[in-house]
C-alpha cells in the first residue's frame, strides 16, 4: 500500500514530522505533497530543514494569494 502525506501549514508540518520519520525509518512506500502556501524561507523551507524532513515529491506552490485564487488552483488539480 502506498501512503500520501499532505502538508500545508506550519503546524501540520510539525505534527506530521514523526509520521514522516516513521515512514522513512520503516521503509514504507509513501510520498509527500506540500501545498507551498508560504512564500518566504522563514515560513517554508525552515520547517522541513529543522526536523530533517525530506523534500516533498510534489509542491503545489499555491502561494499566499487571495482565497478565491487559491480555491481555483486547488480545484484545478482535482
TrEMBL record:
**Keyword flag Manganese:** no
What SUPFAM superfamilies does the database record attribute to this sequence?
UDP-Glycosyltransferase/glycogen phosphorylase (SSF53756)
Q: Domain of life of the organism in this record?
A: Archaea
Which InterPro entries has this protein been placed in? WecB-like (IPR029767)
What Enzyme Commission number(s) appear in the record? 5.1.3.14
- Looking at its record, which EC class is this enzyme? isomerase
Q: Which UniProt keywords apply?
A: Isomerase
| GO function terms (MF aspect) | UDP-N-acetylglucosamine 2-epimerase activity
Say yes or no: keyword Isomerase present: yes
Name by which UniProt lists this protein = UDP-N-acetylglucosamine 2-epimerase
- Organism encoding this protein: Candidatus Argoarchaeum ethanivorans
Q: What is the lineage of its organism?
A: Archaea, Methanobacteriati, Methanobacteriota, Stenosarchaea group, Methanomicrobia
Amino acid at each position: 500500500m502506498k501512503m500520501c502525506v499532505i502538508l500545508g501549514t506550519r503546524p501540520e508540518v510539525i505534527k506530521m514530522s514523526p509520521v514522516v520519520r516513521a515512514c522513512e525509518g520503516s521503509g514504507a512506500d509513501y510520498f509527500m505533497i506540500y501545498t507551498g502556501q508560504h512564500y518566504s524561507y522563514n515560513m517554508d523551507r525552515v520547517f522541513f530543514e529543522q526536523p530533517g524532513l525530506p523534500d516533498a515529491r510534489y509542491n503545489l506552490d499555491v502561494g499566499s494569494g487571495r482565497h478565491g485564487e487559491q480555491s481555483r488552483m486547488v480545484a484545478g488539480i482535482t
